[in-house]
Amino acid sequence: RLYSSSGGNAQRLIGASAPHTYIDFKSSWQADTAANLAKYDVVVLHYTQTAQHIQAIKAINPNTVVFAYFNPLFGGSEGKPHTEWYLRDASGATHSSGYNEPLMDLTNSGWRAMCVQISQNALQKGFDGLVLDNGLASPNVVWPGSWSGSDSQWQSSTIAL
């Protein structure tokens, strides 16, 4: 069973083929959060969660696998100040992800280097691994017209990341 949160409080079934898994991207940490998450086989938390949160879960259940969620197509706080890393269409316009974050250009070597740094920092906190979102063949699949380059160039950059 795969569960997801809405603000950390509500849970809803979103799949039936995964192990007992909990995915939580943006919730606030409460006094009982570690105990609740330690009940799951696999937990996916946003990469910005702290080492203390991971340690608290594993102190209760060392068998819980805790992954860091990261979406390299969304800029987050690391990407927003670097407009040179933003994805641009043929006219040079940027596009939003729809989550108040800019779409990022995975063909930009500076952004890819930042993605590697974000991933390494997450692993150093004690996450057991990473969940990278939006491994798309092209950003145009979800955001039509957002990318003017070739699909093969995009795919090569995604693989390089």
Verbal overview:
It contains five helices and six strands. By secondary structure, the protein is of the alpha/beta class. Strand 1 and strand 2 form a beta hairpin. The chain is elongated, with a radius of gyration of 17 Å.
Fraction of residues in β-strands: 15-25%
Unreliable spans:
1-18
**How many β-strand stretches?**
6
> What's the number of helices?
5
What's the Cα radius of gyration? 17 Å
Q: Main beta sheet, described? A: 6 strands, mixed
Give, in spatial order, the strands making up the sheet with the most strands.
Answer: 2-1-3-4-5-6
Cα(first) to Cα(last) distance is 30 Å
Apparent shape:
elongated
Helicity range = 25-40%
Rounded average pLDDT: 84
Tell me the layout of helices and strands.
Layout: E1 2-6, E2 10-15, E3 21-24, H1 33-37, E4 42-46, H2 51-60, E5 65-70, H3 76-79, H4 109-124, E6 129-132, H5 151-160
Parallel strand pairs: 1-3, 3-4, 4-5, 5-6
Antiparallel strand pairs: 1-2
Give a quick set of tags describing it.
alpha/beta, 5 helices, disordered N terminus, 28% helix, 161 residues
Offer a quick outline of the entry.
This protein is an alpha/beta fold. The protein is built from 5 helices and 6 strands, in the order βββαβαβααβα. It has a 6-stranded mixed beta sheet with strand order 2-1-3-4-5-6, with helices on one face.
